[in-house]
Amino acid sequence: MRWIKRSIVVYLAVLFVLLLPFQAFAAKAEKLIPMGHSIGIHMNLKGVFVINDVLLDDEKWLKAGDVFKQIDSKPIKTMTDFDDVITNLPEDRKVILSVKRGNQTVDLESSKKDLQNFYPFVRDRTEGIGTLTYIDPEKGEYGALGHQIIDAALKSPPSFSTGSIYLATIEQIKKSVPGNPGYKISSILKEDHPLGDIQSNEIYGIFGDWQSSTLTGAFPEPLEIMREDEVKPGKATIYTTIEGETVEQFSIAITSVKGSSFQFELTDKELISKTGGILQGMSGSPIIQNGKFAGVITHMFVEDPLKGAALPMTKMLKKQP
């Protein structure tokens, strides 16, 4: 599933989710391991969500963002609960749907036919891809994406209970062209072997505990984090994955530094030839300048996919503005 913000810039990760309070890292790390691997992201939502407006027989509506609480007296917490109701409900039986809509509970009459018809518009889980940014070997924690995940249908960060990230392999690339961002087509390698859990979906990325003991980073040793005032216009390198599971390095030029963000342009001819520019799914790719961990790719410019925006690593570690 892909989501695109059709304005000057576009977020580069693919998926749906909600802000969950998470205790901040105890102290800012001085060194981190840059990664660059493509990851699959799975999040279990806090309930069964309606993702599109759906008309019922009596001309009443389920609204995008509604959360199922009960069908008659049966609590609905997962899609399994929802499936059980449909399976066991007689054809001519009417039921009362209780949904949470904002701060209110709304009751709507429905039928088995209704439930079957709007089945494609409800879900209890979301999936997507992005790029793993770093591992903090001292704390056993990771960070990814460099920006918050927003649900395309709900236009907000929906609530989630648990989540995990997985190593993904890139199977195909849809190239970027001006006005139409490209994207990665990927699949998870081992769904029973998560790289880490997801504890928080913050303004500056997703964060959690690192669980893998086998995946290695782009560098044999952790790199020093570059201070914001050290990031300068000039040559730099990004680490990302565009084929299989191999992390590769590509050249960029940092073009401007403005406060807590900076802009860059792709200069690597091989990368441009293969991708047409920055792709959805590249958000989270680490940026290295002068041997230090400078920042992370967060956005691209829709009308010029060779250009993008980035967040300094010191800013990403704060998680919030």
Automatic annotation (TrEMBL):
InterPro entries: PDZ_sf (IPR036034), Peptidase_S55 (IPR008763). Gene3D superfamilies: 2.30.42.60. Residues 99-321 form the Peptidase S55 domain. Pfam families: Peptidase_S55. PROSITE patterns: SPOIVB. SUPFAM superfamilies: PDZ domain-like. This is SpoIVB peptidase S55 domain-containing protein.
